[in-house]
Amino acid sequence: MKTILLTKKSICLLLVTMMLATLQSFGQQDLEKELGNTAPAHEKVSATFKSTKLINVHTNETIFKNELDFRIDHRFGDIAGSNGGIRRFFGLDNATDVRIGFEYGLSDRLSVGFARAKGATEVQQLYEGNLKYRLIEQTTDDYIPVAVTLFGSTTATGVTASDDPSSGTAYRNFSDRLNFVTQVIIARKFNSSFSFTLTPSYVHRNFTAFRDQNDLFALSAGGRAKISKRMALVVDYTMPFRNGSDQDYLEQQSGIKYRNALGAGLEIETGGHVFNLNFTNATAIEEMQFIPQTTSNWLKGQFRWGFSIARRFSFNKKNKEK
Amino acid sequence: MKTPLVILLCAMLSISVQAQHILISKTASISFYASTPAEDVEAKSDKASSVIDTKTRNIIFKVSNTSFQFPKKLMQEHFNENYMESDKYPASTFKGKITDDVDLEKDGTYNVTIDGSLDIHGVTKNYQTKATLVVNKGTITAKTSFKVTVADHQIKIPTLVFAKIAQIVDVKISAVYQPK
């Protein structure tokens, strides 16, 4: 009997302790449950890319409101091939193109830019004005799976008009000097270390060399893969869709072949600065030029060392209230 | 047969117990400020959530790291991407208890000590802070401030930007709790 009583007692005790324990833990858990889901709904993905450009192609990134991005792009001469090698110090003696650009954020979605570039072909002294607008932003919960940014630029050439009417620079008036680029930049950040972009482009040049195309469609793809917290490998590829017969004619006339532009590089982000060290066969930097006019061949050593430096300045007034 | 009954009993009990003693704030504000030779770093979130149990005097704070707004947006991007790693650690949480024996159901102003653990960047550390609670007709207004040492939570700052980012950050919190 005694033992049974004891067991009963101990069971009772156990039950009470259990109840108390459950109560206690219920209270704690419930308290946290009361908070509900604190994560914001459909949160926007930030920093799909760290810079407004990969190497040759634009990313979906724009400049935040009241911030200014100052960017220098530089392309040296061919590393190898007939124009490279030790005589030209692996291309470092030449600069095929240099671009100095400013971009300013009018809002967190819209930025406006102005740039001056040397220009890589006979079409030189380029002045570019551009607008970039974030149309759609990817969300972390994949409610919106991709980001879409629109890019539009107008580039005027300042080079002295050529007398040769078949030349690409035989301008008759100012409007001949204008070139337009429209891009729809589709991007997705797959995870914290990999982002991808696909960009259809439309390039319109008011004046081109004889039988060169005024209107040209192209497709670009690019990716960024982080190798450390601050460093990433970047690659981009641009493929213009040229009209076959015109391309054959031009290639026969000049003895050159049109190529797709491929770039590969290392991006280093230091908080405020983004450095990019790259190799690409594209001699030009401006979209209206590198998309239609890339003729250098990677396999012939006609790729170059290039770099870009981007520095961000903020003009936001400091928040006075604390 | 006994066990489900006990669980049911406990569940019922706990439901009846918790209901009236829980006050909640969905718009608690957390701001932090750090002064460095290069520039001042400050950010604020008005979207923190907090809940207080006046009976047990337990208190929980939770804030989504991405809800902090910086005057400089690039700084905000760096904060989330490089320092807080918000994709891995989306929220910062404080779980604590008011150690003083105060009756938070009576109107009045109470200076109390809160003891608890703060989870930032996936690293939990114990904190003790003084707070002021004002109880007025069922609502509670709470205010506190404390210092967080960045290194305590294994937030790594590269030497290159060392000067720009302070090692000790002043955190200010205020919340108005309403009955659930």
TrEMBL record, chain A:
Domain DUF5777: 49-313
Pfam families: DUF5777
Keyword Signal attributed: yes
Signal peptide range: 1-27
Keywords: Signal
InterPro entries listed in its UniProt record: DUF5777
Protein name listed in UniProt: DUF5777 domain-containing protein
TrEMBL record, chain B:
Any Pfam family: YceI
UniProtKB keywords: Signal
Entry annotated with the keyword Signal: yes
Ranges for domain Lipid/polyisoprenoid-binding YceI-like: 20-176
Signal peptide, first to last residue: 1-19
Protein name in the entry: YceI-like domain-containing protein
Species of the source: Pedobacter westerhofensis
Lineage: Bacteria, Pseudomonadati, Bacteroidota, Sphingobacteriia, Sphingobacteriales
